[in-house]
Amino acid sequence: MKTRIGILGLGGVGGYFGGLLAKAYADSDTIEIVFIARGETKKAIAANGLKIILDESEMIVFPKLLSDDAEKIGKLDYLICATKTYDIETSFESIKDCITSKTIILPLYNGVDATERILNLFPENNVLQGCVYIVSMIESPGVIKKIGHYEKLFFGSKNTSISLLKELQSIFENASIESYLVENIEETVWEKFIFISALASATSYLNENIGGILNNPNNKAIYISLLNEITAVALAKGLAMPNDIIVQTIIKLEKSPQDNTSSMHRDLLAGHKIEVNSLTEFVVKEGLKYAVPTPMYRMILDKLMNSNIY
């Protein structure tokens, strides 16, 4: 019987890693990759496949199944989900019949509240924690562009058996996905969240790319203030962050392409709905919960909420 893996959300993250899985298991008798898509994305992939553009090459992949019909999709053994955070609940609504109590769900979102939100929908399931470091984006429906060679996927769970986690790790490894099964996954996810939340908030507020943040002293000061506030929240929650987490985060940003920006900033520029609730407001709410002041986050939140795109 085949192991069936659904990919929900074929954007920069889901499209890229889903594409690697579809390519690796195209002729497999034991693993079937299912792309869950609708609208223009579904039409484009059905006609031309999913195209992934790399720095020096490109590839086109076709999943074993492409659908948004729960009846056609059928029951899933694994579900890797990477939609926008504001779509978590609605994206699951149409495929809830594909999820059994044994379906293992791996969220790969920008925020840190996805696991809890999914568990509210499926309390009996193994819902893992995960995060990725990658620069990738939708160039057009069915076309993903990845910039640079850096890509890492981290996942884990305190409640899921190690044998199930190792089985998923093996699936990733056989697809040449650089993945890491992490014991202290909550801290790892928060390290990524510190990076992406501060960057998304700063780039969107200042309307600047990474270079514009790092090379302008005033902008960099705002960014560092955000890092200090979110790190204080993480510590107040009892998370064991590295002592040099702020320095490490700045170094990561310095190694990123200077002309790149956050996905939230890209969405803001395009006039799309933005993930301000999960990336900015969440920090303010957690600050209130743990009595940690977050004045810079609050100021930026007020401006972004007033942009009417959230």
UniProtKB/TrEMBL annotation:
This is 2-dehydropantoate 2-reductase. It is an enzyme of class 1 (oxidoreductase). GO terms for biological process: pantothenate biosynthetic process. Residues 184-304 form the Ketopantoate reductase C-terminal domain. Pathway: Cofactor biosynthesis; (R)-pantothenate biosynthesis; (R)-pantoate from 3-methyl-2-oxobutanoate: step 2/2. It comes from the Bacteria. Catalyzes the NADPH-dependent reduction of ketopantoate into pantoic acid. One of its GO terms (cellular component) is cytoplasm. It holds the Pfam family ApbA_C. The keyword Membrane does not apply. Belongs to the ketopantoate reductase family.
